[in-house]
């Protein structure tokens, strides 16, 4: 090799590779998933640049945005090639070894506690999963701005990079060659790879071809269906397909079903399609960098073209736990991300997304049989669907309840909707979670206030002498044990008034129209009155009744 240079892996990366190599982990398939999702990322990058610069794609095979998988049984090599953006020499050195990714230590920690390798992709170190199955890996890459280079490592603490003067020129893109270990022979079987592509990769939006044997020759065979799921009719997409799609979006190679999803088309002033998912689990660092990070986990597409992975302004911070995708027909293409970021249409998209997300969460609660108070009904209507829906809301609450609380504090416009999603334990909740509405329905006649107490744990609060008399008088007391709960209550003071306003909305609307001839400004619900059914008042900025009299006497 010419110009061969040797480099040491960054220390944590080296440790990570060591763990991977010695992992007893049985599901090694995830490496393929990681490689193809990297190929797909690289293809999206070039596709995005090509929007404004057609020339960049070059000509001939270079214009084909595809992924190619090849097997060499004799040499025991599995290779995966993409025609994506490619890597320069510097990229190879930095991205595959010397720059520490922020997720590395988080992943190491997780591995030690849970042994769950599936999260490797989410932690931004998915590439190294190749060492689950290979003892030597070559990465050949060609970027438009550099010559073709090879990166190679046997995972022994170092890697080499050299200018590639002996492999076939790639034109543009990356080829990863895995020299498979003795015990990983199954990945040299065509049938195994076809099965994996079907299982994990159907939702990669680029064609994946496998070089398959056809009697005496080999031919490229298309393996996946490239019609994006979000363009399909929701009625025709199965739960299993949504689950797979979720895993490809979330970079999670496991197979846990998301807690919920919502697939819809918005029409009217803004047109877009979206799929939103509530993940099965909260990421480890969801609230760690909450105050400064405002990256939503929604992918943004404009007319089927991928624009961005982490777009601010699509969702408020407290909903950043959602994963999903938005494909807008209304946003302009061919403008910079900065300009898109400020586009007024984004505001309307955001508003609709919030509404849909909160609807989805509300439904999760409504459809959970455990949430229902009506025990008899529960026994009668039992479908198989109930089994999986049972306890879903509690699961949701345990994972993401804090997000709902933060929402109540931050999102004034949706505060009431969010308050309905709030759950807590109380002196009467019997070890289960209960809601504000349920609390209100249990209130004693004449009870005007909601009682709550904050502290470190329910066990501790139950013993508090402060609530003795309330318990004795049969008043229900809410236990708030999360540090955010203390500030939460401030924002909930008018919950019930808003509730009432909502339930009397039709009546007040009717009154207003009925009184229109009298020039009535508005008809509002009041909790100030005890026996009198209604009263005429002046508005905050209007004249008082007395002032009105004076003015009238002057003009007459
Ligand atoms: P992540 O994909 O989460 O960034 P990985 O460990 O999978 O983490 O990959 C590390 C980096 O290596 C990527 O961010 C990318 O810059 C680079 N890379 C990996 N595979 C490719 C590829 N096929 N084409 C171009 N760049 C790649
Ligand atoms: Mg990756």
From TrEMBL:
Q: Keywords for this entry?
A: ATP-binding, Chaperone, DNA-binding, Nucleotide-binding, Nucleus, Transcription, Transcription regulation
An annotated GO cellular component of this protein is: nucleus
Annotated compartments: Nucleus
Q: Recall the GO molecular function terms of this protein's record.
A: ATP binding; ATP hydrolysis activity; ATP-dependent protein folding chaperone; DNA binding; unfolded protein binding
Question: Where does this chain mainly localize?
Answer: nucleus
Give the protein family: Belongs to the heat shock protein 90 family.
Question: Can you say what this protein is called?
Answer: Endoplasmin homolog
Q: Which organism is it from?
A: Prunus avium
